[in-house]
Amino acid sequence: MTIHVLPLAITMMAGPQIISAIIFVTAGRPIRLSLAFLAGVLAATVAGVAVMRGVAELLGSAVPMGGSQHKGGTGRIIELILVLLLLLLAVKNYLGRATAEPPRWLTTLLTATPLRALATGLLVILAMPSDLIVLLTVGLDLKRSNAGPIGAVPFVAATLLIAALPLLAYLVFRRRAEHAMPKVRDWLNSHSWLVNVIACLVFIALILS
Prior knowledge:
Elements lengths: L7 H6 L2 H10 L4 H33 L10 H23 L18 H13 L2 H16 L8 H20 L1 H17 L1 H17 L1
Helix pairs in contact: 2-5, 2-7, 2-8, 3-5, 3-6, 3-7, 4-6, 4-9, 7-8
């Protein structure tokens, strides 16, 4: 895996993903819920990378993908298509900013059970189109590098670390975090469109670099 893929872990957790992590920290059983959520994120990321590595292998078997230093091939064409999709998604979020609201299911997480937190961790990765695009990009990068799923360990670890930041802040700065996290949560809820636009632009820059 090439180094430039690692920052995509930030994009993986941008939007409802990190908001969910913050909500669990502000819930009644923050540590249990957060650990269950992280378990779901880890399982979903590992499974997603493995599946997308297989998809990249199938694409590579049909048409040469191009090496890590080669900018042509099917892999590059797919990346350009991903860039177009991300641009459309960024424009959609920007145009809808005036009426943008967080998903309704986010408001129910404060009363979630550990099982619900686990399921949320799975779904915020595997059911989010932006994360599926990231995972496909990682799969294509692994294919170019001739690396198996084990090569994605740094990416998986980085994603898990970012997902764990709210919990780590809670454990280290307990009282300050209890005071600050609800404000951060509310700001992210009201500016979710901006978070999504920034994530798309960062992702595009990384793909084109």
